[in-house]
Amino acid sequence: QVQLVESGGGSVHPGGSLRLSCVVSGVSWPPYCMGWFRHDPKVAPQGIAVIASDGSTTVARSVKGRFTVSRDNAKNTLYLQMNSLKPEDTAMYYCAADPLCPWLSQAEYNYWGQGTRVTVSS
After folding, report:
1. pLDDT band at 56 (very low <50, low <70, confident <90, very high)
2. Could you write out the DSSP letters of every residue in 44-109?
3. How far is residue 95's CA from residue 6's CA, in Å, rounded to a whole number?
């Protein structure tokens, strides 16, 4: 059974930083993509960053230069380093994985974590 467990969310002031982690277990696929997505009731769900098993990445324009996605294949762990956080980054952040690589097309991901909440406010 595939499981994804996120951690690292919290509350920070604007300009602050957080590092999210997502541990994946139960995966027996060949190389796969992992990504971060965020949902907030006030805006449309958004794909944030995706990284393939070879290290190729794609990052949403809204966070480029502030967020960095990385992964440790030996630990089956995905990371999202978030710097210079803004109030509009407030959302539930979810990690997702898939044996294919849908990149930022979140509807095509088959495996999701439960999410971790990020709140940016002064």
Report:
1. very high
2. EEEEEEEE-TTS-EEE-TTTTTTEEEEEEGGGTEEEEEE-S--GGG-EEEEEEEESS--TT-GGG-
3. 7
Q: Please enumerate in sequence order all residues whose Cβ is within 8 A of that of 76, keeping only pairs 6 or more positions apart, or say none.
A: 23, 24, 25, 27
> For residue 39, what are the β-bridge partners?
92
Q: Could you tell me the sign of the dihedral formed by the alpha carbons of 23, 27, 31, 34, in that order? A: negative
Give me the pLDDT at residue 31, please: 67
Q: By the 8 A CB rule, do 94 and 47 touch?
A: no
- pLDDT single digits (tens) 76-115: 899 999 999 999 999 999 999 998 888 888 888 999 999 9
Q: Which amino acid is at 34?
A: M
66-95 burial: b if 16+ Cβ within 10 Å, else e:
ebbbebeeeebbbbbebeebeeebbbbbbb
